[in-house]
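Weekly structure sync, notes
Attendees: PL (lead), two postdocs, one rotation student
Agenda item 3: pending single-chain targets
PL asked that the sequence for the first pending target be pasted directly into the notes so everyone works from the same version. It is reproduced below exactly as submitted, 280 residues in total.
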Amino acid sequence: DNLRGVPCLCLRSRRAGRIRIMAVEYCCYATPGKRKAALLCNAFAKGARAKGHTALVYEDAPHKLRPGAAVFYGVVPATRHLFEQAKAEGREWWYIDNSYFDNGRGTYFRVTCNALQAEGTAEPDYARAAALGLSVKPWQLNVGGHVLVLPSSDEFMRLCGWAGGLAGWLARVDHDLRATKRLVKIRPWNRDKQGAASGLPAAMNGAWAVVTHASAAANEALMAGIPTFVTGQCAARPFSVTNICQIESPRYPEGRERWVAALAASQWTLGEIALGAALP
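Predicted structure, written out during the meeting:
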């Protein structure tokens, strides 16, 4: 009776001939009504089962988390309460989202445990990076151009706990960039990811630096040799300056090739996820 309403899988033990109850290990919470979210969550669940785990997918955003690790493809208002519950309870949670690079967007997806993004510390896969056409250009030293600000969505900024959402972040950036006399260009967030990616190289051309919270566009800037300033935990953080007031003192660290190859090894196709490649 205590297990009533708790998703579980009943398996018969061959040795004892008895019924054994196995609690759900992974519960995937798809955004209600979003086909892509359901597709990714079902692929993750299939991959978990391929690894010998138990997994279920919920497409109705229940009021509370089910037992087990929580898995999300993105987090929206309908599922944010579940995401916040997972963090508050110290649950293991998994996050699935678009790829780290524009090359592979729509085909590759990042999967992280207890983090929104990896930071490029995985074992590098140079062949995988090369197959994606990922290349690192020399640092653009002493380029006296503009500062390009790349905001994320208001929804994402609130998810990251930024007071005031996007408006609060922009106000902070505006304050901190008073340390420079350079032209500051703000490129508004665009829901059309393909369109945003196609225009990014032109927007970055000649830039002194890119400023963002956690946008994957920072990864493109680093590969293009443009210094980055970030305010959030993201893949670009190890190669970025986190204090925007230091905009006149960008970093030009070594090791970007290894970092790119490590991120390439930390994203997978839908088929690979369904085989369990994203799980240890």
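Discussion points:
- Residues 35-50 form the longest helix (16 residues).
- DSSP finds nine helices and twelve strands in the chain.
Action: rotation student to compare against the earlier draft before next sync.
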